[in-house]
Amino acid sequence: MTIRARIRTRQRFRPSPLLSVALLLCTVLQTSCTARMFEDLSARNLKKRMDDGARMVIVDLRTVREYQEGHVPTAVNAPPDKLYLLRQTLPADKTTMIVFYCRGYG
Predict the structure, then answer these.
(1) CATH topology of domain 46-106
(2) Would you call 105 exposed, middle or buried from its count of C-beta atoms within 10 A (0-12, 13-18, 19+)?
(3) Has this prediction a pTM greater than 0.85?
Protein backbone atom coordinates (compact mmCIF):
# COMPACT_ATOMS: atom_id res chain seq x y z
CA MET A 1 0.00 0.00 0.00
CA THR A 2 2.76 2.41 0.82
CA ILE A 3 4.51 1.78 -2.49
CA ARG A 4 1.32 2.44 -4.51
CA ALA A 5 0.70 5.66 -2.63
CA ARG A 6 4.20 6.86 -3.50
CA ILE A 7 3.77 5.99 -7.16
CA ARG A 8 0.50 7.89 -7.36
CA THR A 9 2.01 11.02 -5.86
CA ARG A 10 4.83 10.96 -8.40
CA GLN A 11 2.54 10.87 -11.43
CA ARG A 12 2.57 14.08 -13.38
CA PHE A 13 -0.64 16.09 -13.49
CA ARG A 14 -1.99 16.42 -17.03
CA PRO A 15 -4.98 18.74 -17.40
CA SER A 16 -7.67 17.48 -19.71
CA PRO A 17 -8.43 19.38 -22.93
CA LEU A 18 -11.87 20.22 -21.52
CA LEU A 19 -10.26 21.88 -18.51
CA SER A 20 -8.05 23.93 -20.83
CA VAL A 21 -11.08 25.00 -22.87
CA ALA A 22 -13.01 25.92 -19.73
CA LEU A 23 -10.12 28.02 -18.41
CA LEU A 24 -9.70 29.74 -21.76
CA LEU A 25 -13.39 30.59 -21.98
CA CYS A 26 -13.40 31.87 -18.39
CA THR A 27 -10.46 34.13 -19.22
CA VAL A 28 -12.16 35.46 -22.35
CA LEU A 29 -15.44 35.97 -20.53
CA GLN A 30 -13.81 37.73 -17.59
CA THR A 31 -11.79 40.03 -19.82
CA SER A 32 -14.73 40.89 -22.03
CA CYS A 33 -17.25 41.32 -19.23
CA THR A 34 -15.10 43.78 -17.33
CA ALA A 35 -14.89 46.07 -20.34
CA ARG A 36 -18.53 45.70 -21.51
CA MET A 37 -21.27 43.16 -21.87
CA PHE A 38 -21.48 40.74 -24.78
CA GLU A 39 -23.63 41.77 -27.68
CA ASP A 40 -25.32 39.82 -30.44
CA LEU A 41 -23.99 40.81 -33.82
CA SER A 42 -25.94 40.29 -37.03
CA ALA A 43 -24.16 39.30 -40.23
CA ARG A 44 -25.00 42.73 -41.67
CA ASN A 45 -23.55 44.55 -38.64
CA LEU A 46 -20.42 42.37 -38.71
CA LYS A 47 -19.88 43.13 -42.40
CA LYS A 48 -20.34 46.85 -41.76
CA ARG A 49 -17.76 46.78 -38.98
CA MET A 50 -15.37 44.82 -41.17
CA ASP A 51 -15.87 47.31 -44.03
CA ASP A 52 -15.25 50.19 -41.59
CA GLY A 53 -11.91 48.61 -40.65
CA ALA A 54 -12.75 47.75 -37.04
CA ARG A 55 -10.00 45.82 -35.26
CA MET A 56 -11.32 42.34 -34.59
CA VAL A 57 -10.47 38.67 -34.47
CA ILE A 58 -13.17 36.43 -35.93
CA VAL A 59 -13.28 32.87 -34.63
CA ASP A 60 -15.23 30.15 -36.44
CA LEU A 61 -16.15 27.45 -33.89
CA ARG A 62 -17.39 24.92 -36.45
CA THR A 63 -15.65 21.73 -37.55
CA VAL A 64 -12.75 21.86 -40.00
CA ARG A 65 -14.97 20.43 -42.75
CA GLU A 66 -17.64 23.09 -42.22
CA TYR A 67 -14.95 25.79 -42.18
CA GLN A 68 -13.50 24.53 -45.47
CA GLU A 69 -16.95 24.60 -47.06
CA GLY A 70 -17.12 28.35 -46.44
CA HIS A 71 -16.34 30.88 -43.75
CA VAL A 72 -16.25 34.58 -42.96
CA PRO A 73 -13.17 36.21 -44.54
CA THR A 74 -10.20 36.43 -42.12
CA ALA A 75 -11.91 34.00 -39.69
CA VAL A 76 -9.69 31.63 -37.73
CA ASN A 77 -11.00 28.09 -37.32
CA ALA A 78 -11.12 26.73 -33.76
CA PRO A 79 -13.17 23.53 -33.78
CA PRO A 80 -14.44 22.34 -30.38
CA ASP A 81 -11.80 19.61 -30.06
CA LYS A 82 -8.97 22.10 -30.72
CA LEU A 83 -10.30 25.10 -28.82
CA TYR A 84 -7.30 25.08 -26.49
CA LEU A 85 -5.14 26.25 -29.42
CA LEU A 86 -7.17 29.45 -29.62
CA ARG A 87 -5.21 31.20 -26.87
CA GLN A 88 -2.31 31.60 -29.33
CA THR A 89 -4.59 33.56 -31.67
CA LEU A 90 -6.36 35.87 -29.25
CA PRO A 91 -5.04 39.44 -29.18
CA ALA A 92 -3.20 40.78 -26.14
CA ASP A 93 -4.83 44.16 -26.81
CA LYS A 94 -8.06 44.21 -24.80
CA THR A 95 -9.68 46.79 -27.06
CA THR A 96 -9.72 44.42 -30.05
CA MET A 97 -13.16 42.91 -30.56
CA ILE A 98 -13.37 39.11 -30.58
CA VAL A 99 -16.25 37.66 -32.61
CA PHE A 100 -17.21 34.00 -32.14
CA TYR A 101 -19.61 32.26 -34.48
CA CYS A 102 -20.84 28.72 -35.07
CA ARG A 103 -23.60 26.93 -36.93
CA GLY A 104 -26.00 27.32 -34.00
CA TYR A 105 -27.83 24.92 -31.77
CA GLY A 106 -28.90 21.43 -32.76
Answers:
(1) Oxidized Rhodanese; domain 1 (3.40.250)
(2) exposed
(3) no
